[in-house]
Amino acid sequence: MVQLGLVGTVAPDGSPVVLGVRGAAPQFAEPVCRVEVLATSQVTATAVRAEIESLVAEHDVLRGQVLAFGVSEHFGNELLTFLPRPDIGGDEVVLPAGVLESIEAHVVGIARHGERLLAAGQHLKRGLLLYGPPGTGKTHTMRYLMGRLPGSTIIILTGAAMRFIEKAAMLARRLQPSVVVLEDVDLIAQDRGYDPMGTGQPLLFSLLDAMDGVGGDADVTFLLTTNRASELERALADRPGRVDLAVELPLPDAAGRETLLQLYARGLRLTADLAPVVEATEGAPASFIKELLRRAALRSLAENSDADVHVGDAELTGALNEMYAARNNLTRALLGNPTS
Predict the structure, then answer these.
(1) Is 30 strand, coil or helix?
(2) Which Pfam family is an annotated match for this chain, by its short name (predicted)?
(3) CB contact at 8 A, 103 and 221
């Protein structure tokens, strides 16, 4: 790491300049690196500074990455984790007809036509809320959208990391096109009617300020999820760019459950009659169907550990009966299917 240095170079207009670099020294209350420009005129120095800022933004190591904020369990240090970008096909997102297309148009479509929208006087900042019962595919759908925006910076906040919403919004402005993901946003954005003293939601105002602080011309998307839409703060939808579109992801119907069974059976040799299982799983979310296929596969392997994992009527029905057994009441509830 460079602590002190001088570099000779040229300004954008070709005149000679010297860059002085002073490294960060937190122990001396200097938490950031400083770059000083020595030039023959203030105009030249200003042009050099602008060029440096442009290059820093262009080559930022965080640009175009999938990032997750977190906290160290030992010292409470702030953490930033690099994650792989999900690669999920549209056929792997099982939603009612037209729902995924509506979501894509709002998030991906605006990104695709951003320049023309701005030229037409339209704002780019947008907010999407996905809501519905647990296990219906809200997180899965968001992961699909991440893959559909390969050039965007993705910033993920969950749980305790939501307290970094202001820093995440600042980063999103700097690294646009970008997406800020807040899962289970009701944890910090419960309607103020549930807290008449106004003391229990300190992060709600941070969230609203962060969303408002991103200019309308910024290509920034806020993706929010919740299982409890009825409890959310109504101010989230008061202004454009907070939440412009709220989409319910319902429990899958019979056709959806059959599609899910076939989807999660990829890699298995599925010969079971699906009709009885589709009927028996009415009211079950996608997460329940996924676990059902895994248990059926385990039953098959217990009988025959060959590479070809066969799931027939016996394995699938046995797994279903096991999940609906009284001893698995809590498991069913956690998977979003509390009743048999």
Answers:
(1) strand
(2) AAA
(3) no
User: For 183-211, what is each residue's pLDDT tens digit?
Assistant: 998 887 777 666 655 555 678 888 888 88
- pTM over 0.70, yes/no: yes
pLDDT tens-digit profile of 12-33? 999 999 999 888 877 777 778 8
E strands in 89-205: 126-131, 153-157, 178-182
Q: Which two structure tokens, joined as six digits, stand for 182?
A: 């807040």
Q: Edge-to-edge strand order for the sheet containing 245-248?
A: 78-83, 66-71, 153-157, 178-182, 220-226, 126-131, 245-248
Residue 277 pLDDT class (50, 70, 90 cuts): very high
Of the options 3.40.50.2300, 3.40.50.920, 3.40.50.300, 3.40.630.30, the CATH number for the domain spanning 66-248: 3.40.50.300
- Which pair of tokens denotes residue 89? 């096909």
Q: Which residues contact 146 (CB under 8 A, 6 or more apart)?
A: 66, 85, 86, 152, 154, 179, 181
CB within 8 Å of 189: residues ≥ 6 apart: 201, 203, 204, 207, 224, 232, 233, 236
Residue 276 above 80 pLDDT? yes
Q: Which CATH class is domain 254-334?
A: mainly alpha
Domain boundaries, the chain: 4-58, 66-248, 254-334
